[in-house]
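User: Some background: our group keeps a shared notebook of sequences we're curious about, and every so often someone picks one and asks for a predicted structure to add to the entry. Today it's my turn. The entry only has the sequence so far, pasted here. Could you supply the structure so I can complete it?
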Amino acid sequence: MIAMNRPLRRRDLHRLGLSDSDIKRLARNGGLHHFGDRYVSGAFESEAARMLCAQSAHPGSVFSHFSAAHLSGLRTWTATPKSERRVWLTRPVGIGRADGGPDVVLRQLRIDPLDVRQHRVAAIEDPLVCLDGMPMTTPARTVVDLARQLPLREALVVIDHALDVMVTRAELDEVLDRQRGWPGVRRAKAAIGLGDPRAESALESIARAVFAEAGIPPPVLQARFWDGHQWMPERTDFWWPQFRTHAEADGLAKFEAASAAERRRLHRAAFHREQRLAARGAELVRFGWEDAVNEPAELVRRMWQAFARGVRRGGEPILWRTEDPATSSRWPRLEPPPDLAAS
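Assistant: Of course. Here's the predicted structure to add to the notebook entry:
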């Protein structure tokens, strides 16, 4: 493989002494990656090479939106996967044309130096062959850019994950202040206001957007219940104490396993968990991807029906608690009553 740590054009390779036949041979045997009119060392992973070549074709640009989220390791989901697979770039207004081409989304916006960082890209087999930095938007800028661009259910997926693993609300607020007056910034602010780091999957984030848009009161996330002797180990995805109702977002991955025996074990564990939660005297609604993504109106109808049943149940208050966001640990020390939250 040729040790070329930045994208070059064919004429640049000629200056390095490579002929057209050399270039074709290297591209054919993996010594070079070729995207558009740029070539880069085959030592880099294919997707990184594609992004490097795209960015090189637009001088002054930085990776942003979905591309920056990918580089940062942020969870994303979109109903239009093709747009997520394109290379997303942002460069200052007035530099070059705004047309990125079929495989590139190019935004022209103000780029504050505070909103940019460098991402180091190493070769697959030789970490000494690397780029010192791929310019990209910071996680906070990336989240806000996506929140301005995307519908609520897609924006919440990245907002929730970012709040859990790498950004603070203060950092997001700083970016929002710098983008005051930009298109979509009000929508981004509203979406970020709904963000919750306790959401543990894209499905949970999407469901919360469905609930919010339907006017369903915000649920408590990851609540635990008191069974009269101890705190139950189970946490429920969504809990509405005022309606004595909880809901579980069950993606298919929850029951994937390498063997039939393991799948049976997972199903039995889910069954016993459901039985223990049902013994608390609360309504339960289960739903999956198809419900939240394809039939949100039907899911909302089921939720309101469950709320009505839960209110009619009556009975003793259900004792519950959730994590304390003021503590540094994910779960605080669990204590018995009276420091419980009750319906």
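Suggested note for the entry: The radius of gyration is 25 Å. DSSP finds 13 helices and 13 strands in the chain.
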